[in-house]
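Q: Focus on the chain.
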Amino acid sequence: MITFDLCCHREHRFEGWFRNREDFEDQLAGGLLQCPLCGSTRITRKPSAVAVHVSRRTGPPQPLPDRAGDRPGNVGEGEAEGKAVRAESFLRALARFVEDGFEDVGTRFADEARKIHQGEAEARNIRGTTTGAEEEALREEGVAFLKIPVPKFDA
C-alpha cells in the first residue's frame, strides 16, 4: 500500500491509500477519486511534509550494523528477485531505525509534536499516529512532520 496526500480544486486536503502509483493514476484518470468534503473529482496529488527532528545533543547518525539476513540475494538470483531482496532489506533497516531511534507516543503524536514545535517539550525524535484532522491542523500551524508507513515483518 502507498499513501498520497491529495487535494481538490477547493483546497480540501485528504489522504488516499492505493495499491501502487499506477492504481492511483488509473483511478485519477478514470474520475474515480472524489473529495470527501465537497465531492469534487478535480483532484491533485500534493507533496508530503518532510522533517526529522533531532536533539541538539545528538551527534550525526550512526550507520546501522550489517546483519547477515539483510544482505542482498545470493549469486545466481534473477535481477527482479535481487531487487526484491534489496527492497526488503531497506524496509527492514528503515523499520529498525524508526523503532530504535524514535519514541513511540502513540495517539498523542499531534500533541507532542506541537509541544516540541512550541518549545514546551524537549526536542526529540517521536513517532505515533494521527487523524487526518490532526495532520491538517499541524500543517496549518507550521509543524513539520514526515509520514512513514513502517511495515511489520513476520518473525
